[in-house]
Amino acid sequence: MQQPVVSYSMPAEEIESVSLPVGWKSYISPEGRKYYVNTSTKETTWERPSTSTTSPKASGSHQHSVNGRQLHGASGHVLEHPDVYLRKTSLSNQSPGSTSPARRQNKEKEIKETKITINCVTFPVSMSAPEQQLLKPSEWSYCDYFWADKRDPQGATVSGFEVLLQKQLKGKQMQKEMAEFIRERIKIEEEYAKNLSKLSMFPMAAQEEGTLGEAWAQLKKSLADEAEVHLKFSSKLQSEVEKPLLTFRGDNFKKDMKKYDHHIADLRKQLVSRYAAVEKARKALADRQKDLEVKTQQLEIKLSNKTEEDIKKARRKSTQAGDDLMRCVDLYNQGQSKWFEEMVTTSLELERLEVERVETIQQLLRQYTTLRHETDMFNQSTMEPVDQLLQSVDPAKDRELWVKEHKTGDLRPVDMDI
Amino acid sequence: MQQPVVSYSMPAEEIESVSLPVGWKSYISPEGRKYYVNTSTKETTWERPSTSTTSPKASGSHQHSVNGRQLHGASGHVLEHPDVYLRKTSLSNQSPGSTSPARRQNKEKEIKETKITINCVTFPVSMSAPEQQLLKPSEWSYCDYFWADKRDPQGATVSGFEVLLQKQLKGKQMQKEMAEFIRERIKIEEEYAKNLSKLSMFPMAAQEEGTLGEAWAQLKKSLADEAEVHLKFSSKLQSEVEKPLLTFRGDNFKKDMKKYDHHIADLRKQLVSRYAAVEKARKALADRQKDLEVKTQQLEIKLSNKTEEDIKKARRKSTQAGDDLMRCVDLYNQGQSKWFEEMVTTSLELERLEVERVETIQQLLRQYTTLRHETDMFNQSTMEPVDQLLQSVDPAKDRELWVKEHKTGDLRPVDMDI
Fold first, then answer.
1. Within an 8 Å CB–CB cutoff, is residue B223 touching chain A?
2. Per the CB < 8 Å rule, is A358 touching B393?
3. In whole angstroms, what is the distance from residue B307 CA to residue B288 CA?
4. Gap between the Cα atoms of A209 and A398, Å rounded
5. What segments bear the compositional bias annotation Polar residues (chains A, B) (predicted)?
6. Is A74:A90 a contact under the CB 8 Å cutoff?
7. What is the overall mean pLDDT for chain A?
8. Cβ of A411 under 8 Å from any chain B Cβ?
9. What is the spatial order of strands in the sheet that A44-45 belongs to?
10. B81 pLDDT higher than 90
């Protein structure tokens, strides 16, 4: 009989390091409750040990149930080492087949009232569960809020994990659209630069001379300088904003998402088949138990020629069916635990990716505004030489230059003599 | 016989006010030389009077010639009151007909060697003229440099005044072309604004939520703000630069230029016809003089039966022809003086208009650079709200918002019971 080893310990970084008395370690149960284990005596307790704590509490079942299930050793003690959940499959004590029907009924009732299995995943019914504490309180962490499936607007079932995955894929779409937006801005800037550059070369008033002509020529040239500034802007937009937006999640991103998707989906599928096995085993046990009961009754009223041998056989089969059921439930629980672990790990990874996405985009958009600031400043500076030359405009100087070039004669007319 | 009144005094503002001894006033001759007149004694002198100056210099002809011509009164004195050039048309003294041929010849020689008439305008021959001083020294004034005609590249004759006029008309063309340039800039700005405005409304990444979504939305909006800035720029360019450039010389300007053109041209035309009259009178005089000479010779050798009566008649005709010539020369000189005055006045007006044009354009182009500076500053400010929102981007907050909206369930799965 296999002894499943199931570990519910959280990833190491999730485990708080707290200062405990010597020999004690702390762990988090799947429900999120912290419990303490004495590594030498193997005592387990919910209560934080002080140096005076020696013996485990021996109170009602719930306090010592981890994951809602009582862990009994052969002696009836709570199983001491929580890291390793060894199932002591002692048939006599643990087999559901050996309990009285009444007790069984109670247990089944207990099962019905405290847990519910939806889409092959087993949850506590909220009222009866010991209050689960969030794995990462106050953080609104993905690993705390996406356990259940939901229905989409079309009525199809969507797992919580898929919601998380879709968000990541949408995030990639967002960055692509942002890059498109930047691309459009780049095109606008290039068009603007082209127009300014062309205009700067138009010959309007090219014949203006002197200091005014110089100022005007510089004003026209400043448009070419402005064009240069905008071209530089568009070029940097391309290399420092657009390109990173397009590429900071590489092609591998989608592959990784697919991988996660399939991995988690496979674990769910496995859970489905294991749950089916449990239901099948449960039914088979019920059949065997019914058979045993009938045969026992028949023996009592000497209804048939069934011998004690037959009853023993029926009892054996019943016991086996019980064992099968236990195994199936174990396998199921293992499968669920595995899925649980992968969900926590992977959803935290998606959470990390999302933080990274937001921070990266924030950084790139800041770069955008930085480039815009730069551009406006460079643009301002194109006016400086124009301002200077306008300052120097001098009508008298211009007249001197022009007259020197175009004068026709400075001898003034005189009276004609007779 | 008419007594032409010709005044060569400069416009009042051209006359230097200098501190002179009591009773003296200063004037500028047409050649630009300053001379001084004692308003009580009517003494005239080239030399600046100190309190000791009393009598006019009595030296060679040039020193007392104003406008290169000796002004002799009946007594032979230099004509005292220069403001009014009264020609004392005493026939006996002043008639060229009464001078000896030899003396006449000298005078003609003098005329040939000191003055030259080109296109009906009479100039001193540069070597012999008393050095003309500029009317407005160190100012490169229009009124000093455009007396002569010139030839254009096609070989046609162009007056100096026309050169000045063309400059003004060209100036109007320059301002029109500058306005066109600004119009083109306005169109470019409007195009840019339109493109930015359109892009700002594109739905790229509209689904981004939370603090990142807000920052992104503001970034997109900032393009609309930028568009607004550029529209305002183009609007102000239109009203504060383009429009004034087009309109600061009104339609009247061209009419005024035409008026000046015709006025000055008419005065030149009059000069042409008056010069023709002089030439005609000169020829007539020559004919009459020859006739007299012939008749006198004939009398002396008793060649014909001409009586003294005939000679007296011939002599009278000769004298008349001389008077005619003097009158024609006077009229010509008046015409030239009138043209001279109008040239000075009008060219100074054109000069003033040119200064005004340069200063106005300087002002409007400064307005252009001011608007550009403003625009860059307003543009910078469109980034402020974006920077602020980018500052506030918070992945944790965004996760909280998203998880609250999209979570599927926070109950964690538990082990199934048997």
1. yes
2. yes
3. 17
4. 7
5. 39-68, 89-103
6. yes
7. 81
8. yes
9. A24-28, A34-38, A44-45
10. no
Are B224 and B196 in contact by the 8 Å Cβ rule? The answer is yes
Beta pairing class for A150-151 and B24-28: unpaired
Q: Which of residues 81-100 of A touch B (CB under 8 A)?
A: 96
Q: For residue A253, give the amino acid letter.
A: F
Residue B161: helix, strand or coil by DSSP? Answer: helix
CB B83 within 8 A of CB B2: no
CB B168 within 8 A of CB B354: yes
Of the candidates A13, A14, A132, which has an alpha carbon nearest to the alpha carbon of residue A67?
A132
Could you report the per-residue pLDDT of B113-126, keeping only the tens digit for each? 689 999 999 999 86
- A300 has a pLDDT exceeding 70: yes
Q: Are strands A115-118 and A121-124 parallel, antiparallel or unpaired?
A: antiparallel
Are residues A32 and A26 in contact, defined by beta-carbon separation less than 8 angstroms?
A: no
Please state, in angstroms and rounded to a whole number, the distance separating the CA atoms of residues A344 and A15.
Answer: 14
* Cβ contact A369–B351 (<8 Å): no
Question: Structure pTM?
Answer: 0.73
Of the CA atoms within 13 Å of residue A6, those in its CB half-sphere come to 24
- Beta strands in B290-350, from DSSP E residues, in sequence order: none
CB atoms under 10 Å from CB of A61, counted, come to 12
Q: Which residue has the tokens 């991103």?
A: A253
CB contact under 8 A, B410 and A329: no
State the first-to-last Cα distance of chain B, in angstroms, to the nearest integer.
151
- Is the minimum CB–CB distance between B414 and chain A shorter than 8 Å? yes
Query: Which DSSP string do the residues of A329-381 spell out, in sequence order?
Result: HHHHHHHHHHHHHHHHHHHHHHHHHHHHHHHHHHHHHHHHHHHHHHHHHHHHH
What pLDDT is attached to residue A129? 56
- Report the residue of chain B nearest A413, measured CA to CA: B123
The answer to whether the Cα torsion of A55, A58, A62, A65 is positive or negative is: positive
B238 contacts B187 by C-beta, under 8 angstroms? no
Q: Per DSSP, what are the bridge partners of residue A116?
A: A123
ipTM of this complex > 0.85?
A: no
